[in-house]
Specification:
By secondary structure, the protein is α/β, with parallel strands linked by helices. It contains four helices and eight strands.
Length: 141
């Protein structure tokens, strides 16, 4: 099976802080499945490193107050296109991210406060029938 995976979970240093969050259990899935690494923020044209961003209402704003919503939507669409091209029905995405978070994201106050919600990419993928799991849910595969 082909599975879309947040590139940072596979060790790619593409997060806002130019680091990764490699997850051994996610990486181990490559023994049984083809993992397709993606980073919606990079695919949307944002640099690495970049100023952290959070969702505020319908917009994505970085910590300096710059609206980066368009980049997030562009990256989400590119990830969806990759998922469709590869026939991916499942994605393992980084929890809490303004792109990839499912059910829980940071609230836009930049105080590390969590709230209910989905990241831009996760939401688009779900609307298109792709099952979203986070790195702690791979036992569901």
């Amino acid at each position: 099976m082909k599975i879309l995976v947040s590139a940072c979970l596979l060790g790619t240093p593409c997060r806002y802080d130019a680091k990764s969050k490699p997850d051994a259990c996610v990486i181990a899935l490559s023994k049984k499945h083809e993992l397709i690494p993606v980073c919606a923020e990079v695919l949307g044209g944002l640099p690495t490193p970049r100023i952290p961003s959070e969702i505020m209402g319908e917009r994505v704003i970085n910590r300096e107050g710059v609206d980066v919503t368009d980049e997030y939507h562009k990256g989400a669409q590119r990830v969806l296109d990759i998922a469709i091209e590869n026939g991916c029905k499942i994605a393992i995405l980084k929890s809490k991210s303004p792109s990839c978070g499912r059910d829980e994201i940071y609230d836009g106050s930049f105080t590390r406060t969590l709230t209910q919600g989905n990241g831009i990419c996760a939401g688009l993928l779900m609307k298109n029938g792709i099952t979203i799991l986070n790195e702690k849910e791979i036992d569901k595969i």
